[in-house]
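Project outcomes to date are best conveyed with an example. Our students and postdoctoral researchers have been running inverse folding experiments weekly, and each run begins with a structure described purely in tokens. The record below, which covers 452 residues, was selected by the lab manager from last quarter's runs and is presented without edits.
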């Protein structure tokens, strides 16, 4: 377990104890009274011990380190590296595949020298240039060194079972951790990438100390955003840098909330969320009702005839026939969206982005519970047409979704994707299960027909 730490005897502690013991017996202090081994040999012994831990690994290490990013919280970069007595070999990984130089991206591995030094403690230094690693610490870049990462790291400790090494960057002071890989680098990459691709959802909830907080994975930046009390919901909340493990995530900067400290979380067996390894917190899927009542979507949800249940289609058939017998023909309808404002307000909008032909039906919406919402039409209709289309035939569609005189309760369910990241949402009329419609969670506007 990477959270079991070995409390190594530190030089300062030893000096302090020696000082106290000596002062009790004599005012004369000599080096031989304080230490059995002289400082130079003692430092060599410490570095030799770290070198033993570094080299005692069949598959190498996953090196996680924060890198400054312009205008955002530091992002975690992950490297696969193996050490021998004098050389470090960096292997192709998800991080190296983002390099601008195609020759570097294509390389399977790059070998370079490393060393240990004493500089107010043990420092790991990657001495010779490595195209996989030093590109993120290149101070010659035109945008200056402010956005670069470290290539020298102050080592703080290693875990009791010697499978994790902890430290921080010497220059940027950003966290640094190395985790012993249980398999070869390519397999480790695939297995850790699967966490990001499927189980780091854009929306989720963080549960700790009995509180449920809105949260969001910014997986492109390897950040988890958590909105604490008083945080502005329009901007990022508290940001925490994390790296992907096999079957979980690890926070380089631990989450601290109401006396709890969370560093490592593992994916549940049913892949429905993450649990803190010490049982203090969890990350759960975002409640389905929140997709409508809490967040303003950049892309309003589109659906059409083919996304409807049998009873809903029957109502739409009535609408099409009635509209074709009126001054407003059914082929004029190409969009139909639920557009929410993130504060519980919602509209049914037809022909979005069509200027004077854009028709708005404001609805009342309330959150019944995490899996249910209720909708009711306010009786209003606005457009630039100069007339209303509700009585021309659109009433059949609107009444199936949100009648005027009473709330219609819908159960929200997810279809496809993972429990953490649903692909599409379905609203099912609780009073009539054959009255339902579904739509993707992030559909973009495109020219189509609501009758398709």
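After processing, the design step wrote out the following sequence:
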């Amino acid at each position: 377990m990477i959270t079991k730490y070995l409390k190594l005897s530190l030089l300062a502690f030893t000096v302090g104890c020696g000082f106290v013991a000596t002062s009790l017996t004599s005012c004369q202090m000599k080096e031989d009274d304080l230490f059995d081994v002289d400082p130079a040999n003692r430092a060599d012994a410490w570095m030799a011990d770290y070198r033993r831990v570094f080299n005692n690994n069949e598959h190498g290490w996953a090196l996680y380190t924060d890198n400054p990013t312009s205008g955002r919280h530091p992002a975690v970069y992950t490297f696969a590296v193996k050490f021998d007595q004098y050389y470090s070999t960096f292997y192709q990984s998800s991080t190296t595949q983002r390099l601008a130089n195609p020759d570097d991206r294509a390389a399977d591995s790059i070998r370079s020298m490393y060393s240990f030094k004493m500089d107010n403690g043990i420092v790991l230094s990657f001495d010779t240039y490595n195209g996989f690693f030093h590109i993120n610490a290149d101070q010659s870049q035109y945008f200056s060194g402010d956005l670069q990462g470290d290539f020298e790291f102050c080592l703080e400790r290693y875990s009791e079972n010697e499978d994790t090494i902890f430290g921080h960057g010497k220059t940027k002071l950003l966290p640094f951790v190395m985790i012993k890989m249980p398999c070869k680098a390519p397999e480790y990459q695939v297995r850790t990438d699967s966490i990001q691709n499927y189980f780091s959802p854009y929306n989720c909830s963080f549960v700790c100390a009995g509180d449920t907080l809105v949260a969001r994975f910014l997986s492109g930046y390897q950040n988890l955003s958590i909105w604490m009390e008083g945080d502005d919901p329009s901007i990022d909340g508290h940001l925490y840098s994390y790296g992907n493990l096999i079957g979980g995530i690890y926070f380089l900067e631990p989450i601290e909330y109401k006396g709890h400290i969370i560093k490592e979380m593992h994916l549940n067996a049913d892949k429905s969320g993450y649990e803190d390894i010490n049982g203090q917190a969890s990350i759960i899927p975002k409640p389905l009702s929140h997709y409508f009542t809490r967040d303003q979507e950049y892309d309003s949800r589109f659906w059409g005839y083919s996304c409807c249940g049998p009873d809903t289609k029957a109502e739409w058939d009535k609408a099409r026939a009635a509209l074709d017998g009126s001054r407003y023909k059914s082929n004029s309808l190409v969009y139909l969206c639920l557009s929410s404002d993130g504060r519980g307000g919602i509209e049914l909008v037809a022909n979005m982005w069509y200027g004077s032909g854009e028709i708005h039906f404001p609805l009342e919406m309330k959150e019944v519970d995490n899996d249910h919402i209720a909708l009711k039409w306010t009786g209003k209709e606005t457009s630039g047409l100069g007339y209303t289309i509700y009585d021309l035939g659109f009433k059949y569609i609107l009444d199936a979704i949100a009648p005027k005189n009473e709330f219609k309760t819908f159960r929200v369910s997810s279809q496809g994707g993972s429990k953490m990241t649903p692909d599409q949402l379905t609203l099912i009329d609780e009073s009539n299960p054959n009255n339902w419609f579904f739509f993707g969670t992030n559909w973009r506007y495109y020219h189509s027909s609501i009758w398709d």
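Helices lie at 11-23, 31-34, 39-55, 102-106, 185-199, 290-293, 310-324, 390-401. The mean pLDDT is 83. The training component of this project remains on track.
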